[in-house]
Amino acid sequence: MMGKPVVVTRVVDSMTDNLRPTRAEATDVANAVLDGSDAILLGAETLRGLYPVETVSTVGKICAEAEKVFNQDVYFKKTVKHVGEPMSHLESIASSAVRAAIKVKASAIICFTSSGRAARLIAKYRPSMPVISVVIPRLKTNQLRWTFSGAFEARQSLIVRGLFPMLADPRHPAESKSGTNESVLKVALDHGKAAGVIKPHDRVVVCQKLGDASVVKIIELED
């Protein structure tokens, strides 16, 4: 609910020595997915267990089945209610982007970000479509050398459920004073197409900052 990554561990301990999990363990894995957890971490089951490959396969299958019955609508409403009013500026933009994506049945949400916080807030609402986080690198210095930030932020986002980070070209700013980041947006769309997430005639919700204003827009792709 706070938008912080939640990792659940020690869910199928019995698979350290057995080929199948107990019914209670299988239920725990499914409930972790239904409750909105970001990841499931296996420990002894794969470190010293007798069936490491089978454990990963079994847990993966349970997660996939649980995701099929995940009620995104109820989860979204519950999260919005928990946030309460008045919402912060960023929280309002994130929830609006997810609501728009649900209403227009978008195939993906693309979010331009520098720190990754906006993308994590969007992913917090657990939209049924993937969130492509376009991390725009920033140039910074310690007075001895210049470095680009962004790789660390993008890598950290990998733990968040439903979030797929990509690092943009540092020559394009996260905040555009005129128009939109068309070139960066095209790279993000191409990235989605290559991954098989975005197809011709699909709708995509884009969340970005233009000057001092945050914008949520819906684009419809051509052939």
Automatic annotation (TrEMBL):
Gene3D superfamilies tied to this protein: Phosphoenolpyruvate-binding domains (3.20.20.60), Pyruvate kinase, C-terminal domain (3.40.1380.20)
Reactions it catalyzes: pyruvate + ATP = phosphoenolpyruvate + ADP + H(+)
Pyruvate kinase barrel domain span: 2-56
SUPFAM superfamilies named in the record: Phosphoenolpyruvate/pyruvate domain, PK C-terminal domain-like
EC number: 2.7.1.40
Cofactors that this protein relies on: K(+)
Superkingdom field: Eukaryota
Pyruvate kinase C-terminal domain mapped to chain residues: 91-210
Alphabetical UniProt keywords: ATP-binding, Glycolysis, Kinase, Magnesium, Metal-binding, Nucleotide-binding, Pyruvate, Transferase
An annotated Gene Ontology molecular function: kinase activity
Class of this enzyme: transferase
Pathway linked to the protein: Carbohydrate degradation; glycolysis; pyruvate from D-glyceraldehyde 3-phosphate: step 5/5
Family, similarity comment: Belongs to the pyruvate kinase family.
Name listed for the protein in its UniProt record: pyruvate kinase
Origin species: Hibiscus syriacus
